[in-house]
Amino acid sequence: MLEDGAVTYPETGTPQGGVLSPLLANIFLHEVLDAWFEHEVRPRLRGRAFLVRYADDAVMVFAREEDARRVWAVLPKRLARYGLTLHAEKTRLLAFHPPRRNPDGDGGRTTARPASFDLLGFRHFWARSRQGYWVVKRKTASDRLSRALKAVARWCRHHRHAPLVWQHAALSRKLRGHYSYYGITGNAVAITRFRWEVRRRWQKWLNRRGGRTVVHALGTVRAAGAPVSASGGDRHPFDLPSGSEAMS
After folding, report:
1. Are strands 122-128 and 134-140 parallel, antiparallel or unpaired?
2. Taking residues 60-68, what's their average pLDDT?
3. Close Cβ partners of 72 (under 8 Å, ≥ 6 residues apart)
4. Is 130 left (phi over 0), alpha (psi -120 to 50) or beta?
5. Considering the entire predicted model, what is its pTM?
6. DSSP letter at 234?
7. Are 247 and 175 spatial neighbours (Cβ–Cβ below 8 Å)?
8. CA–CA separation, 177 vs 16, rounded Å?
9. Interstrand relation of 49-54 and 57-62 (parallel, antiparallel or unpaired)
């Protein structure tokens, strides 16, 4: 294994972020977790339950709390048989249900704020639909959004002296990649915010490179001698793509 310029020969585990990690996780956990849950756990439960897993990230959903606690008690033992352990900071038992009305009848208000959880870069939470029903919605998890913006800021700082056309093309590809994963129904606010924050960071580092470049307040880049948009209108060729454009 090559990591940080050093070659090692580990007998167990895979490198963090390595392309082999999800493949081995799927092969290993199919027997350890998927088949066990389907054939041994579910037949013994009193209510409905299902398992959602991607590589080594998984969520178990139970209709009855007693079933959840029973599986919670035996899950560490099941994994220990195969030399695995649960991540202490990322594993928890969560009461995830829609808000309930106050039993005292306080104007129909709900009780406590409903719980939420993060999975695969998305925050899952309860919210009202357009019809007024409680539904599970998803948005970009705050830690993933912060991580992505920090990476963009580092990139803009490192490449601020590169040609604007090249910078614009590279940032556009980054945005479209972000939209391809996070561009789901109900996540428009986070998508729009990400684009705005990327433009703001690009503006910041372009203004620090000197010369005659001028970056307007809205984040549209205009360089001395830059081409005029062939389609006319207010859209400038150096403006960054929006989520709706990338997913259309």
Report:
1. antiparallel
2. 94
3. 93
4. alpha
5. 0.75
6. S
7. no
8. 21
9. antiparallel
